[in-house]
Fold:
Amino acid sequence: MKCDLNGTVSLVTGSARGIGQGIADRLARNGSVVYYTDLVFAEAQAAASATPNGRALKLDVTKPAEIASVVQQITAECGRLDVLVNNAGVNTMAHRVTIDSFPREEWDRILAVDLTGLYEMSKAAAAVMREHRRGRIINIASIAGLVPLRLQCAFVAAKAGVVNLTRAMALELGARGVLVNGIAPGSTLTEGTRKLFYGDDGLFKESVQRMLDHVPLGRPGTVDEIAVAALFLADPENSYMNGHILTVDGGWTAGYTRDF
Structure:
C-alpha cells in the first residue's frame, strides 16, 4: 500500500522495535518525516537510522514533562505535527493470575503506560493539531480491549479504556480537523510474543495452538500487516473515518472457527 505523506510530520511512540517500528517505517517510506521515540534512545536511533526520513528522540510516556518537551522540540524543528501514533505499551509476563492475586503495583505500571501515557501524549499533540486544524491520532489498542481475555486484568482494562477514549477523542476533536481512530491487533508475531508464545522456549507455547485454532487464518499477524492498517488511517485521502476501531486479527473476534 502506498499513500502520499510528503510534507507531513509524524511521531510514533514505542517505535524502537515491533509494531511501533513497523508503523514508523511505513510512514517514513511514504514520505513523512517520522520521529521514532522510545525509552531507550540508542534503540530509537538505530531504528530511525534505517530511513532518511527518520529522526530519534528519547521519550517516556509516563513523564508529562518529557512529553511536553518532545512535542515542543518537534514543533520548533518542523512547525507542525500531523500524525501521532500512540503505540507505546506494556503487558505482564510474570503475573498471569486471577484478579484476586494480581498485584496493585503491576496494575499501576500497566495503566500508567497503556492508558494514562496515551492520554498525556494525545493531550499534548491535540493542542498542536487543533491550532492548525488538521491531524491524525492513531491509538494502538488490542482485541483484548474488545473481547476480554483471562489472567490479564490490567491489560484488558487499559485497552478497553483506549477503545472508548479513542471514540471520545473523535467526538471532541473531529470538528477541529483532527481525526482519531484506533487499531485492535490480534496476536502479532513480535519479539515479545516470541518470548510468550511463538519461540521454542516461549512461556505459554503449549497453549498457542489452542489460541490459533480460533483464528480463521491459522497464524499470528505480522508487524507489517498492522503497519498497513496504520498507514491507511494516516492516508490524507482517508478523510471521513473518525472514531473507528480497525480490528486486524485474522478473524479471531469474528467468532470461533468451525470445521462444519
